[in-house]
C-alpha cells in the first residue's frame, strides 16, 4: 500500500475542513480525488505531503509516518501544489537543477535532461519560466515534482486553466507517469477522472461520500435512461405502467425520455408495448450514464 490515511481530521480554528477521513491508495494506482470547491481536497493533500499537520489521525506514505518520519515521506513524494507556484525569474533548466539540489539528486545535469525529455520541455528549456505558457509551466511543475524519482505523485488540480490541447497533453503525461508511480490527483473535471483514473474518491464537506471505480459508481448510483421514438402517437400511460418506470417525459414529435430503476433493462418492455398497440419503434437507445450526474447526486447536500 502506497498511501494509508486513517481517521484524519483537520480543524482550521473552529472550522472542520476534514472529518475523520480514511482511505488507501495502492501501488501504481491512479486515484482521482474529487469534490466541490472547499470540500477539503487541498487540505488532505497538504497533510499527506507534510506541508501542514493534521489535528488528529494518521497517514503513512510508503510505510513512513508523516509525523515521525516526515523527511522520509518527502523523499518518496512528488508534489504539484494547487496553482503551481514557480520562480518566474528562473530559467527552466536552472530551476530544475535547483530543485534537484534540494533533494540531493545525484548527477543533476543528467536528471534534469531526463525530466525535460519526459515532460516535453525541449524547445522551452532555455527560457525563463515567466515566459512560458500555462501548459508549459505545468510541465515544469511536473518535472520538479518528479526530479527525485518519487514513488508517489500528488497533484492538486494539475489541469485547471489549460486549453483543450494542453489538457489532453498533460492528461497523457499523467497516464504515462502513472504506469510506474502511485498517482493521486485532485480535479473537478469529470472527463478527466474517467479518462485518467483507475478509481475515484469523492469528498464533500470534509467527508468521503464515495470510493470506487467510475464504472461501478455509475452503475450503483444511476437510473437507466431510455430514449425512444415511435412512428405514431402513444398513450403516455402505457409507458408509465411498465414495471420499474419512474418518469416519462414527452420530447418532440413522438419521442419520449423514460427514467427507470436500474434493476432490469426495460427496452424490451417498451418495444412490446408499442407492438401490442400497433405502433412502430423507430429508435430505442439507452443513454450512457454520466459521472457528472453521479457527482451531483453525491455532493448535493450543502
Ligand atoms: P478544496 O481544495 O477541496 O477546494 P480546501 O482544502 O482548500 O478545499 O479547503 C477546505 C475548507 O477549509 C474550506 O472551507 C476552506 O475555506 C478552509 N481552509 C482551507 N485552508 C484554510 C486556512 N489556511 N485557514 C482557514 N481555513 C482554511
Ligand atoms: Mg483545492
Architecture (CATH level 2) name of the largest domain = 3-Layer(aba) Sandwich
Q: What spatial order of strands do you see in the largest sheet? A: 6-7-8-3-9-10
CATH topology of the largest domain: Rossmann fold
Continuous helix count: 11
Describe what this molecule looks like in 3D.
Helix 3 crosses helix 4 and helix 4 crosses helix 5. The two termini are 33 Å apart. This protein has a 6-stranded mixed β-sheet, with helices on both faces. 34% of the residues lie in helices and 28% in strands. The protein contains 11 helices and 14 strands. It is elongated, with a radius of gyration of 24 Å. The model has no long low-confidence stretch (mean pLDDT 92). The chain is α/β, with parallel strands linked by helices. The protein folds into 2 domains: 211 residues, P-loop containing nucleotide triphosphate hydrolases (Rossmann fold, 3-Layer(aba) Sandwich), CATH 3.40.50; 81 residues, Alpha-Beta Plaits (2-Layer Sandwich). The site of magnesium ion has 4 residues, from helix 1.
